[in-house]
Structure formats: structure tokens, C-alpha cells
Write a structure and sequence with these properties.
- Chains A, B: It catalyses: 5-amino-1-(5-phospho-D-ribosyl)imidazole-4-carboxylate + L-aspartate + ATP = (2S)-2-[5-amino-1-(5-phospho-beta-D-ribosyl)imidazole-4-carboxamido]succinate + ADP + phosphate + 2 H(+).
- The structure is a homodimer.
- Chain A is of the alpha+beta class.
- In chain A, about 25% of the residues lie in helices and about 30% in strands.
- Chain A has five helices and 14 strands.
- In chain A, strands 9, 10, 11, 12, 13 and 14 form a six-stranded antiparallel beta sheet that branches.
- Chain A is globular and about 55 Å long.
- The two termini of chain A are about 30 Å apart.
- The interface of A and B includes residues 102, 123, 131, 136 and 149 of A.
């Protein structure tokens, strides 16, 4: 990495610009949480867990292979599990503002859970209710608690064209179905997941990572699994 | 009102069931706010302002007449400014849950202001930016701070059909344009407003009230006006 320049240091990854124009993602062992409890949805790094970065990368390798098999494009060029790095095409993450802050997270839900229940409690008849690949889009903004943004705001603020927005939502549902089907083969149930999407070489593609951190998974007894358990069951 | 039964006591209105099947809305002088400061967006009644109920009713009378002239349907049957009451057709407020709680508020914005700026600050280039009748839908839920809900959630939770949702959003924009044009004739600028919508006799119509409380209005010097000033300028 002597010839590369560090361009960003995130909560779980560092980014380097490569001489060939691509980006190198270096996965870190940092974990986020609050009050000493690990929570991938939280915005504060509370410590490190050895091997965590490689596990995230291993999961991403696992799911990106399945996406590619299904013809779903990602930004991946190549991936080095030993080094804990991933080379990706340079692109424009959807929802990034002019200063490079922000960015959208595309959430897909198959049943009500977590913040969705907290927000819409009165409308939820029972926890077993199916949500038919419901998509929500949130803005990455630690200070404001990652606010939800609706389609009208995204288009009116000029953040996405209606066509790209529709493509991104369809891509989110497509990825969710692929991940759900794969988990199902292993006796696991996907509750919800989130991905990031970018415009790479003019195409709407999956970017960043797909790790156990970015999904809630239940076993056949209805128990929500630890991320490390999901990792063991899938990647071993 | 001897022959009528009180069916609901709200923050600013009481509701009575009339013998003819309609509902009587009785406007109250209660005002909401926090820390002693009146804020119509707040959820706690902090006191009373004499004549406030009649002013809200006067504004509603003013705007409902304009909506009716423009062919926009409302639930209004008749209105008594002296008594501070309004008789309306019985209907189903959109977004009410099975227990009668909740209900949607349809917000229409012509420029960024208030919570919209707080949520999407990083995307807003300047305060003069036009928002082209952007619609947001929120759930009336005091405890949860009236959370935003997106179209996908509304449809997936079975709260509205896609057709009714589209009609309701179009109605919201239509009402906003009518109110904006009327204010403009008086040298005033509409920033944003909110309405409630119901399904009455199988039709999507404006319900509840349209008062100064439910809109932000600027004068030609760019100053946001007190609600009582808006009332004086329009109804006198």
C-alpha cells in the first residue's frame, strides 16, 4: 500500500485510493455500540474484536459471490481474505452530499422488527406479520440518528432521478430475496437487512459490504442470532 | 347538544355524535406548546387563549370556501361561527388504526423549514431553495414524536391502497397550491402546511380544519408571521 493514499477512515473500514483508479477497502476490527454493549446499528466505536474485520470481509465474499451468480452487479474487483482487503471500482454512493458526507442506506424488511415496530407500533397486528420486502431509505447522519427520507424528498432535493430511485429500490428487494433464499437453505430466516448502493460506471450497483452486521437473522426456533453465529453457520 | 354524545376529546376540539349520523366539532381555546411557549406543532396543552377556537374555525371557514370554489371536496356540512362549531360528515380519517388512534398528517412544503432542515441539513443548499410541493406523511403519535412514514410502509402495512395514497398526495398538493395562491394575493408566502384527509362516502376528501396553526406563512419581508397575524390578514 506504499503507492496508495488514505482517503477516508470510517468506523469499520479505511479507504485508500489505488494508482489504477480503484479504491482499496481495509476492514478493521472496530465494533460500534453503546454502554459497553456491541450494536452494529450504533454510531460510536466502543472497542475492537479480534478477527471481526476478516469475518465481515468473509461474509461479504460469501454474499457477493451469490449476487454475482444471480447476475446482480457489485463494485467488487477482487478480494483478499488473508490481508482483509477488498479492491473496488470507484463510484458515487447514492445520497452522498456535495461534501462527501451522508449517503443512503437501503433497508429491506420481511417482517416488523426494531425501529420499525417502535415507530409504527399501533399499526402492527402481530410480530409474525409479513412485510413483503418493504423498502425504507435512511440518511447516514450520526448526529441526527440516521433519519428516514421518503421518495418525494429524494427526488425533489435532486438527490436521485426517479428512474435511479426505482432501480435502487428494485435492486434492494432483489438482493434481499437472494440473501433470504440462501439463509433459508441453511434453516435461517432473514428478518431485515440493509445495503448501500452506488452509481459505478453509469450503473446502479451494490457497494460497500454485506456482512452479518447489516442483517437480522433468526434460527428455526425464532431466536435472533448473534452476528458471529450467523458467520459460523454460513462461512464456518 | 342535548341529543348528542361526546365521542372524543382532542387537544383543540371535542367531537359529538349527532342524531342525524353526522359529527359536531366543537372548537376549544386550548393551545399546545412547551416550556410556556405556544407551539401548534407541540403535543401538550399548556393553557387557553380566549377566542382561539373561534379564530381556528374562522380560518377553516375561509379556506374551506376557497377549496369548495376550486371543486376540492371536504367533509363540511355546515359551520356556525357564533357557536364555534362545525357539522361534518362521518368518515374514516386516513391512517387511523383499528383502535381509533393515530391518523396521518399530510404535509406539503414549498421550501425547506423546521424539521425538514433539521433532518436533511446536509442536502439543503440554501434556505431560498424551492421544494415544488414536496409531500411528507407523518403518523399522529405524541409519544413517538409523529414519525414520518414512507409510501412503501403505508401500502405494505395495508393502511391505504396505492390508488388512495396517490389520490391523497395529489389532493395535498392541490390544496397547498390553492392556499398558496390565496395567500399570495394578500402579499403573503406559504412555506409549508399540513392537512388531514379522510375517506368520506367512498371519496378522498379534506377533513378536520385548515387553520393558521397548520401552516407557516411569511410576509414580503421574509418574516414568519404569528398565527394571530395570519388570521388578522385573512379574516380580519
Amino acid at each position: 500500500m506504499n503507492s496508495s493514499e488514505k482517503i477516508y477512515s470510517g468506523k469499520t473500514k479505511d479507504l485508500y485510493a489505488l494508482a489504477n483508479g480503484n479504491i482499496l477497502l481495509v476492514f478493521k476490527d472496530d465494533v460500534t455500540g453503546a454502554d459497553g454493549i456491541i450494536d452494529p446499528g450504533a454510531n460510536t466505536v466502543i472497542g475492537q474484536v479480534e478477527g471481526k474485520g476478516r469475518k465481515s470481509l468473509g461474509m461479504t465474499d460469501y454474499f457477493f459471490k451469490r449476487l454475482h451468480s444471480a447476475g446482480v452487479p457489485t463494485h467488487l474487483v477482487n478480494l483478499d481474505l488473508e490481508k482483509g482487503t477488498m479492491e473496488v471500482r470507484r463510484g458515487e454512493p447514492l445520497g452522498k452530499d456535495i461534501n462527501g458526507a451522508g449517503g443512503f442506506e437501503f433497508v429491506c424488511r420481511t417482517r416488523p422488527w426494531g425501529s420499525f415496530i417502535r415507530r409504527y407500533q399501533q399499526y402492527i397486528r402481530d410480530a409474525e406479520q409479513k412485510l413483503d420486502y418493504l423498502v425504507e431509505i435512511t440518511v447516514k447522519d450520526d448526529e441526527r440518528g440516521d433519519p428516514l427520507i421518503n421518495d418525494d424528498s429524494i427526488v425533489t432535493l435532486g438527490l436521485l432521478t426517479p428512474a435511479h430511485l426505482e432501480q435502487a429500490k428494485q435492486l434492494t428487494r432483489h438482493v434481499c430475496r437472494i440473501v433470504e433464499a440462501d439463509l433459508s437453505e441453511k434453516g435461517l430466516t432473514l428478518i431485515d437487512m440493509k445495503i448501500e448502493i452506488g452509481l459505478v460506471d453509469g450503473e446502479i450497483v451494490v457497494i460497500d459490504e454485506i456482512s452479518a452486521d447489516a442483517m437480522r437473522v433468526m434460527d428455526d426456533a425464532g431466536k435472533v442470532l448473534e452476528h458471529s453465529t450467523v458467520y459460523e453457520r454460513l462461512v464456518g
